[in-house]
Amino acid sequence: MSCKVTRRQFLQTASLAAASFPLTKIVSAETGFARTASPPPGSFEGTRTVTGGVCEMCFWRCQLVGKIRDNRLIKLEGNPKSIDNGKSICARGNAGIKLLYDPDRLKYPLKNVGERGNPQWKRISWEEALNECGARLKAVQEKYGGHGIAVFPHGSSAKYPMDFFERVVGTPNISEASFFQCRGIRDSGYMATFATAPDENVDMANAKAIFLLGCHFGENVHVSHVKRYLKGLEKGAKLIVVDPRYSASAAKSDIWVRIKPGTDTAFLLAVMNYLVERDKFDKKFVAAHCVGFQQFKSGISHASLDWAAKICDIPVQQIREVAELLASNAPHVAIHPGRHVSWHGNDFQRLRAQACLTALLGAVGVQGGFVKPKALKVKGISWAKGGEGVEHNLRLLADKYPYSPPGTPSELIRDACLTGKPYPIKACVIWGQNPMQSIPNQQRTMDALKQMEFVLCVDIMPTDITMYADILLPEASYLERFDFIKTGTQWNLADKHQQYVAPRMPLVDAMFECRDGVWITNEIAKRMGHGDKIPVNSLEEKVNRELGAVNLSIDQLRKEEGIHIRDGQDPYGVADDFEVQLYNEDIADNGYPGVPTYIPVEEVPKGFTRLVYGRSPVHTFNRTQNNVWLHHAMPVNPVWLNDEVAEKMGLRDGDEVSLVNSEDIKSTTKTVVKVTPGIRKDIVYMYHGYGSRNSLLSVGAHAGIDDQELITKLAIDPETGCHGMRNNFVKFVKDGKVLDIPA
Question: Measuring CA to CA, which residue among 361, 326, 373, 342 is closest to residue 197?
Fold first, then answer.
């Protein structure tokens, strides 16, 4: 539910951090946020501009400049030198200031003297915190081996510690949410088809047709990405959107396919079969670059329009219309590979089908198609390998998931934690990830953590997962540290191609006792007996050495306003040896369908509706929920309900409700109903990331419903081991009464 905020109210929120908030609810009353007298509102008198920022309010990482007054960051803007996002940043990027000065942010090392899940925090020194981390992690390593530790990393700052635990300590138990609950299936599916992972910068700006399947453009708000998408539409590209909900993208579409969830692969197979049967595919590209066409043709021959229309619950004519529109604009068709694609547990097959459709249209290496931009490669600094090798890899021991993304499927780690087989996992390091809101079935995560001998969390904000830490360490925010080096390209048919390098550099000094990931990791490594293996002594040294590989330095980048730009390379064209596996013999030999295949999902039980979630345009899932500016813009996540269904249930727009799922798990918080014709009758939809339960979040706690609390049914993608996240069914609860959903 949007909250209408006046300009006066908005400006008032900007000064909240200057108020006398307590540090946290458990330490002291010092704030660190005192301000000196300022010029009148709207004035930039006395400010200076600092360059070199790279945003981390989402993973898109736009280049920034900061406005500083009295040593305080007062405004963030896009870097005008950027050839990526330019001067533009989104609402989240603007609100990075409120992360920096959030009164609830983690400021000092903390020790839990209570119990996991119901912590009582005691402020301790860095020396005490590091000594305990080193001693307890070393004890687990000596007792159980390096494989007795699990690591859940996320974000650019987590790579260095992840590398330490994997290569030096020897743990193979590493699970990134970005792989196993987000884009990992996509990368694996495209790798099994194109032998290369997709780039999300599909050439939409030069496309004649854009095909989006479950992509929430305009709600993800990745600035340069959305700019390319809108540029294509401005130039006349036709837009096809396949989505059960009338999303921001569907509102701009020429064809909106209101598909039944879980049936997308059937739809794609029917489109491809139609193109093949009528010789409307790119025969020249297929002959030159595709393997297994005859097996592929035979394998999809059953997928008639009538077959798919019945399964997908859409008109036959609409599938035909989509196929004809794609064929008439081929090869200049942008079929976007998607991002958060872990949906139903049959997703590897869907992503394979998307890649195959791209190939059938010849939309590879051409203007408007699947293009791999040629950016500079800046190789990271790694720890020297000295761990235990692959003999403790849970996936290999289980002989499962041959097309898993890098790391270990989360469910295999939880299974080992809970059963002790094939070996016990007794320590956990969680760095910038919130597994409580990213991994289905929260109770299993809680149980896995409670049996640990030691849990370490490193983060910027308190989250639901940090409630389970024994030691909680405060990391410097992205505005206070060196870090990630962003590289990329920009190409345009009218202009020359360009490449850029933009390392993250601090816009302000780190506050309180926050430290960066290299310092923290090195200090833990010393205490675990691995100090002789430390590859760099500081994060600044690490970034400088990485830049040196492309003949750059931090000093040079400062002179160049944070961004180095050089001539790029033409990204178009296809190498002679580029090969597309329409039929993948290796997949078939492993016992899975060699041709993309539709796998049905569980039907909605009587009286329930399917719960689907996605991105909010002003939040990055859970990580921004305590941001006061963004909270004012969207304080809760309304549950979308079809208007005809709502009328039968007696629900009105704005009614307060909670939810209960088919396994009798009830949401602990409430939200409001959004009644709309823009959604199918057999689903409800919510924005993900709300409903935090950590009471240290004075703004975001208990606001809206945590959809993940209700995702308790486990659906595992058989080829990759990734979780399906759209397989739970719910009912509404209003005024204490459970309401059945009409058939």
Answer: 373
